[in-house]
């Protein structure tokens, strides 16, 4: 048997080519978290963190740099000093936090692709924000609109990405003042999954809402959000006019926002995990409370983006153990408040899709899965501390996401799963390879990572001795080659383009 296997492997060279058939791009259902949720600390410790955050909110305060926001906060009972620092009584925080929904559904152009944010649901979305892209052929370069559209296509085709994301990369060849219109239209035209709105200004947020209204209808998006947008708090303890402007637009239109402190521990927060999380929690609560003051019941997600810095160089560090401890605590706090939770992702400081990137990504992603993060941004493609999106990294990350889909299913303990009839038919020392039970389940029993090599070393050499990045390079090219644009109503597309043309003229003149 072993000799036969050796002879078969030493035959004619077989090229390992990525699958691009319908099965390889079939949609996987948004996973339910069927595993025990990992709680890092007990309820008493979480209550201590919560109470410390309330002290920060009531005694120290959060700065809101927007006159209208300050007026809204004052009207609802917050205390404001001459420097625009806002203080919140604990009772006020509790009152407004309970107004936010514990989960919501985001619309998609293809109704089959709508997603639930909250509860036991997990949603994977691509990397967000890099100004550079990386691949094996052209190396590191500024990202263009063509790259943005390529990543939308890859997200659309991936069976394990549920959301098209937002600013997957910055299209630096488009004017800063109008590129948000090109990005939103690209999400709509080249994909049919949910997408995110622009948050660079109130005006850009309003444009995002207007495009969503054309696509879905005004009444429909007031009932269920069509946009999920990232509102970053400029830690420490500061919300600027751009973020507040966008937040007000989205809340008033009943569109969902992710209220996310952006924290680098050691620079924007204390070096300790407890101090970081207490500050982060206070900042997130302030933003969520404000959103509910703008519109009670506006869908919000409790967000956490936290990592550490290298105290010797000042550079951000992704995959650090302290970050994962902070993630677990933030997730517990979100569950305490009954709010959907966002974190990420396949983080890496590495500049390329190498072994460092793999280790760092798993170090960051596995705790996000175990903590039942409802919306995982940066789930695929992140490199170089978020400065670059990698084509090879994107499809390699998707392999891991497929594994996590399988992992999240938990263990089947049905009568069929125990396979007693199959066990009875196999003699001692025999095998299950040809049993009826195995034949019934062989296609679905185990997750098979297409881009990972399971062959012998000899066969690997025969197949070209390619590493994972080389196989991923072939994979993403093949996906883009066979991509088919999802159908879009011509009348809707014309209305979208008319609006974009008019807005570009208004903005540029």
Describe, in plain words, how this protein is organized in 3D.
The chain has 509 residues and is an alpha/beta fold. It has a domain at 97-408: Alpha-Beta Barrel (TIM Barrel). Helices cover 45% and strands 13% of the residues. The chain is built from 19 helices and 18 strands. Helix 4 packs across helix 10 (273-294) and helix 10 (273-294) packs parallel to helix 11. It is globular and about 80 Å long. The relative contact order is 0.14. Residues 1-26 have low confidence and may be disordered.
Radius of gyration: 24 Å
Task: State the distance separating the first and last CA atoms.
Answer: 77 Å
Per CATH, what is the topology of the domain at 97-408?
TIM Barrel
pLDDT under 50 segments (min length 5)?
1-26
CATH class of the domain at 97-408: Alpha Beta
Fourth-level CATH superfamily of the domain at 97-408: Trimethylamine methyltransferase-like
| Shape category | globular
Q: What's the number of helices?
A: 19
Main sheet, how many strands, which sense, barrel? 8 strands, mixed
- Structural category: alpha/beta
Strand fraction equals 5-15%
Mean pLDDT: 93
Beta strand count: 18
Annotated CATH architecture of the domain at 97-408: Alpha-Beta Barrel
Seen as an oligomer or otherwise, the chain set is: single chain
**Helicity, as a percent range:** 40-55%
């Amino acid at each position: 048997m072993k000799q036969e296997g050796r002879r078969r492997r030493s035959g004619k060279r077989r090229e390992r080519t990525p699958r691009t058939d319908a099965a390889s791009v079939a949609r996987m259902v948004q996973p339910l978290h069927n595993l025990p949720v990992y709680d890092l600390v007990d309820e008493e410790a979480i209550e201590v963190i919560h109470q410390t955050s309330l002290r920060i909110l009531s005694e120290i305060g959060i700065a809101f740099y927007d006159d209208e926001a300050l007026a809204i906060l004052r009207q609802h009972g917050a205390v404001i000093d001459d420097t625009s620092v806002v203080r919140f009584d604990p009772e006020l925080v509790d009152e407004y936090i309970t107004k936010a929904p514990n989960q919501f559904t985001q619309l998609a152009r293809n109704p089959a692709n709508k997603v639930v944010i909250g509860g036991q649901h997990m949603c994977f979305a691509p990397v967000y924000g890099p100004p550079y892209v990386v691949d094996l052929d052209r190396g590191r370069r500024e990202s263009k609109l063509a790259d943005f559209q390529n990543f939308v296509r890859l997200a659309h085709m991936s069976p394990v990405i549920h959301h098209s994301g937002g600013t997957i990369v910055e299209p630096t060849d488009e004017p800063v003042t109008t590129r948000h219109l090109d990005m939103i239209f690209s999400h709509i035209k080249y994909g049919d999954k949910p997408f995110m709105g622009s948050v660079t200004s109130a005006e850009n947020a309003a444009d995002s809402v207007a495009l969503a209204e054309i696509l879905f209808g005004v009444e429909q998006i007031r009932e269920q959000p069509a946009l999920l947008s990232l509102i970053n708090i400029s830690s420490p303890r500061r919300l600027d006019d751009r973020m507040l402007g966008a937040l007000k637009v989205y809340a008033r239109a009943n569109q969902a926002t992710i209220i996310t402190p952006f924290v680098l521990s050691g620079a924007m927060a204390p070096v300790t995990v407890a101090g970081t999380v207490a500050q982060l929690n206070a900042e997130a609560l302030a933003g969520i409370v404000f959103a509910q003051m703008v519109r009670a019941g506006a869908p919000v997600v409790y967000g956490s983006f936290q990592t550490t810095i290298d105290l010797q160089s000042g550079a951000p560090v992704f995959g650090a153990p302290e970050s994962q401890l902070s993630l677990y605590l933030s997730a517990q706090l979100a569950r305490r408040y009954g709010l959907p939770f966002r974190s990420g992702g396949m983080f890496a400081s590495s500049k390329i899709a190498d072994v460092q990137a793999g280790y760092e990504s798993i170090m960051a992603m596995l705790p996000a899965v175990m903590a039942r993060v409802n919306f995982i941004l940066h789930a695929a493609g992140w490199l170089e501390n978020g400065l670059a999106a990698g084509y090879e990294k994107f499809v390699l990350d998707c392999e891991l996401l497929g594994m996590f889909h399988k992992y999240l299913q938990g263990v089947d303990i049905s009568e069929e799963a125990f396979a007693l009839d199959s066990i009875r038919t196999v003699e001692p020392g025999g095998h299950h390879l040809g049993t009826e039970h195995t034949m019934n389940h062989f296609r679905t029993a185990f997750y098979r990572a297409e881009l990972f090599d399971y062959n012998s070393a000899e066969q690997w050499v025969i197949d070209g001795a390619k590493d994972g990045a080389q196989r991923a390079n072939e994979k993403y090219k093949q996906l883009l080659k066979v991509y088919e644009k999802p159908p879009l109503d011509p009348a809707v597309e014309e209305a979208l383009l008319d609006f974009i043309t008019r807005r570009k003229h208004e903005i540029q003149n």
